[in-house]
């Protein structure tokens, strides 16, 4: 993707994603007598001016029930990656016409594997699994060398897919194990560096083949010094055979290098619960990890009775340990509303998209918000609007009382424009993303 500050105005008009979406910049917008220069509208340093931007302003009530969301049209300006002005709409302004599209916070995919995918390459469906997770580890040992040959390119294509669905940020797990060594990490870092003007990310050093099962310890220690954000893990009992030893190593490595923790936990039996409780205890012993520790999937929570769910949710909330859920459905429904009731941070993500683990995946976390709303009966205007937080990592335009809290002057200029009248409709209909702005620059 070309950066705006390296292309001509003619090329911008020809190639702009805004033009593709029908948000065109006409000659009338830029004239010799204009008080707003061409650079002010088009430059790639976060300067942007939009008119006819639809923002949510409050709720409309009937008998104490929210029956609709109030919106109005505004003029929005950005500069240096920040929102600098939110003003009453000005039809005469020399600005990009946002066509009345709804402006929402840019979406965030908080659990994905950008480093290992078939996306952008030859189509392949998932093959029959043999031997559970350890069987998949054996498969990865065979196929990772081939995957790594063009993993930087495929990661970039995945990022472009996420952008087309409105995400400007991802937390990506990346394989750190004896087969890939540090190559998967290095290849992903190249992709992220190539996309740094249009996409943000956090990296989790992920010992997919176990910390001790395949001895990923030396590679994890080295990765912890390589500009990553979290130390990961996977099923310490079923993979490594020891909960305490594996968690102790993970916690200590995170403490030594001031990183967060994000552990995959698929185990649903007694070992799954013990892992959750032990990690909570370790975080309580090391308060610097509060707010920086997460359990991804954590399927065991969906298998507990309601009383135990409440108990564990309260402990997670008090320890500030978050849950990152792909929002599974079918035989397993996670107690996400219970977690949220106890102030547990809940995120979501696409996990794997078209790889050896999963044939599916659209790249849309707005679709995840829709699934969340359906699974938990969030069908009213108010509850649909609250469900948007799954897509935005908990940032909403209106608070629960209908008071506007986003956007405000000084906020990051990361937002999407959707063909929707309000958040509730966007979630219910999985409304089309017309454009994505990251740090004030149009990237889709």
Automatic annotation (TrEMBL):
<dbReference type="InterPro" id="IPR013108">
    <property type="entry name" value="Amidohydro_3"/>
</dbReference>
<feature type="domain" description="Amidohydrolase 3">
    <location>
        <begin position="168"/>
        <end position="444"/>
    </location>
</feature>
<dbReference type="InterPro" id="IPR006311">
    <property type="entry name" value="TAT_signal"/>
</dbReference>
<dbReference type="InterPro" id="IPR052349">
    <property type="entry name" value="Metallo-hydrolase_Enzymes"/>
</dbReference>
<dbReference type="Pfam" id="PF07969">
    <property type="entry name" value="Amidohydro_3"/>
</dbReference>
<dbReference type="InterPro" id="IPR032466">
    <property type="entry name" value="Metal_Hydrolase"/>
</dbReference>
<protein>
    <submittedName>
        <fullName>Amidohydrolase</fullName>
    </submittedName>
</protein>
<dbReference type="InterPro" id="IPR011059">
    <property type="entry name" value="Metal-dep_hydrolase_composite"/>
</dbReference>
């Amino acid at each position: 993707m070309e950066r705006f500050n390296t292309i001509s105005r003619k090329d911008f008009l020809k190639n702009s994603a805004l033009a593709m979406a029908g948000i065109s910049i006409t000659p009338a917008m830029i004239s010799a007598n204009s008080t707003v220069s061409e650079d002010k509208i088009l430059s790639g340093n976060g300067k942007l001016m939009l008119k006819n931007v639809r923002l949510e302003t409050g709720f409309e009530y009937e008998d104490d029930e929210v029956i609709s969301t109030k919106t109005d049209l505004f003029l929005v300006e950005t500069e240096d990656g920040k929102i600098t002005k939110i003003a009453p709409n000005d039809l005469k302004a020399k600005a990009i016409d946002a066509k009345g599209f709804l402006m929402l916070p840019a979406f965030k995919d908080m659990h994905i594997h950008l480093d290992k995918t078939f996306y952008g390459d030859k189509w392949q469906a998932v093959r029959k699994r043999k031997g559970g997770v350890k069987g998949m580890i054996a498969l990865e040992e065979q196929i990772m060398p081939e995957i790594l040959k063009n993993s930087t390119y495929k990661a970039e294509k995945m990022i472009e897919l996420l952008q087309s669905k409105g995400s400007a940020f991802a937390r990506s797990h990346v394989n750190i194990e004896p087969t890939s060594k540090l190559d998967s990490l290095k290849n992903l870092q190249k992709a992220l560096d190539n996309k740094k003007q249009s996409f943000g990310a956090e990296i989790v050093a992920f010992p997919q083949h176990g910390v001790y099962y395949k001895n990923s310890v030396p590679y994890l220690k080295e990765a912890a010094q390589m500009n990553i954000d979290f130390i990961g893990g996977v099923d310490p009992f079923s993979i490594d055979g020891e909960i305490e030893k594996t968690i102790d190593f993970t916690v200590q490595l995170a403490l030594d290098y001031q990183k967060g923790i994000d552990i995959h936990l698929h185990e649903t039996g007694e070992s799954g619960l013990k892992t959750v409780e032990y990690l909570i205890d370790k975080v309580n012993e090391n308060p610097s990890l509060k707010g920086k520790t997460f359990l991804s999937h954590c399927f065991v929570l969906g298998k507990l009775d309601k009383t135990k769910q409440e108990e564990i949710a309260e402990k997670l909330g008090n320890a500030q340990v978050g849950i990152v859920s792909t929002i599974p459905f079918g035989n397993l429904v996670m107690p996400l509303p219970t977690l949220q009731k106890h102030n547990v941070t809940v995120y979501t993500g696409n996990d794997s998209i078209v790889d050896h683990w999963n044939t599916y995946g659209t790249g849309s976390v707005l679709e995840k918000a829709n699934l969340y709303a359906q699974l938990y009966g969030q069908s009213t205007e108010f509850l649909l609007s609250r469900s948007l937080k799954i897509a935005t990592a908990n940032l909403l335009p209106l608070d629960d009382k209908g008071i506007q809290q986003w956007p405000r002057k000084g906020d990051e200029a990361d937002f999407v424009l959707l063909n929707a009248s309000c958040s509730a409709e966007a979630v219910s209909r999985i409304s089309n993303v017309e454009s994505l702005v990251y740090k004030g620059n149009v990237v889709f």
